[in-house]
Amino acid sequence: MVGVMVGSAALIIILSVFNGFETVVLNMFNTITPQISIIPAQGKTFDPNTTYFNQLKKDKDVYSFTEVLQENALLKYNNKQAVGMVKGVSLDYLKNDKLDSTIKEGHFVLRNKSGNSAVIGSALQSYLAVNTVDPFTELEIFSPKKTMSVNSINPADDFVIKSIRVSGVFEVQQEFDNGIIVPLDFARGLLGEDKNVSAIEINLQPGVNVDDFQKEVIDKTGNGFEVRNRAEQNRSLYHILNTEKWAVYIILTFILIIAIFNIIGSLTMLVIDKVKDIAILSSLGAGKRLIKQIFLFEGMMITMSGCLLGLVIGLIFCLFQQHFNLIKMGEENTTLISAYPIGLKWKDFILVFFTVGIFSFLASGLSSNLSVKKIDQINQTI
Asked: Where is the signal peptide (predicted)?
């Protein structure tokens, strides 16, 4: 019973911690991942100036409608160079009030009185040693011209070179932190795109159903576009999070099974101890099925009691961790979150309860068969 109790508590605590980490990671990604992304099914860019997209921009359910133009480019700061993703966005992008939470240094500003400015990812900023408070040194960005001259003497003539001041540094995740966000008109001049965009990013008004909105846009745009929600935009991330959680669940379940099957030894000792009682019940007319059910119920009662106690202990621990941050992850200001996060989901409690119930039934069934064998031995003796 103690083994089952500890195993059940450990399983619910670890599943809840994984839920907490999943929430933290998804919240980080969702700060800059739109609810809906529209990209071309073929090619890199498309013309957003169509009747439907113009109507969609004015739709009452749409909170922000951001035109995006992005491409890899060479970035140079002082004597250091690196390749990074340049993402040009329209001003609607700044309607996202969570952007400031991603800022590690400076401010999330794309245009000020002195002109255009950029926000750079922390990984790129660290590599290039970009100083956001230096008003004199600007970041240079090189992008190949669409019409390159083969006979050009100076290789620089084949590139569009633009400079921009860096106003801030954002930090989300490695995939995003190797890029730079600039105003759309700056990106158009750099990449030589007068009207086309790479994507349209849409965030919806509070209360609007994302799935219903996505289906409506898919119906309107047809096969020429891919319309993705957040899970589809970060498919690999969601897959990794789910895989890790289920892998941990399976490993801990094996440990729990070992504890559950210890009940076989306990019930075996009980059957041996109750041989006289079994003989009395048998002589009073109790059949094999009834005696088997008695020991089956006994085994189920022991394991399920341990399971329920474990779930209660796990719940209490999770609530304390959630409200009082009992177990820290590291020193203050050295990690993104100070304590292990907790995310309680009732389906995890149900999953653990039924997992224990199924294997408890199997273990108790095997043990109860021994009582039937004892009845046969008693009958042979008589």
From this structure: none
User: Domain boundary residue among 233, 259, 276?
Assistant: 233
pLDDT at 290: 82
Give residue 279's domain range: 2-26+237-381
Question: Both 202 and 81 in a single domain?
Answer: yes
Q: What are the tens digits of pLDDT across the range 55-108?
A: 999 999 999 999 999 999 999 999 999 999 999 999 999 999 899 999 999 999
d(CA 177, CA 9): 38
> pLDDT tens for residues 235-294?
888 888 889 889 989 998 998 888 887 777 777 777 777 777 777 777 777 777 787 788
362-365 own/partner pairs: CB under 8 Å, 24+ apart: 363/260, 363/261, 363/263, 363/264, 363/299, 363/303, 364/263, 364/267, 364/295, 364/296, 364/297, 364/298, 364/299, 364/300, 364/303, 365/296
Which pLDDT score is estimated for 335?
Answer: 61
Helices (H), the chain: 2-30, 51-57, 122-128, 174-177, 184-191, 210-221, 230-233, 235-273, 275-283, 288-324, 346-381
Q: Please say if the pLDDT value at position 382 is more than 90.
A: no
Asked if 220 contacts 157 with a C-beta cutoff of 8 angstroms, the reply is no
Q: How many domains does the chain contain in total?
A: 2
Q: Render the burial of 316-334: b for 16+ CB within 10 Å, e for the rest.
A: ebbeebbeeeeeeeeeeee
Contact 252, 280 (CB under 8 A): no
Looking at 216, 233, 250, the residue that finishes a domain is 233
Proportion of the chain above pLDDT 70, given as a percent: 93
Give yes or no: residues 229 and 281 share one domain: no
Residues 155 and 55 in one domain: yes
**175 and 217, same domain (yes or no):** yes
CB 268 within 8 A of CB 365: no
| DSSP for 285-312, written as a single string | T--HHHHHHHHHHHHHHHHHHHHHHHHH
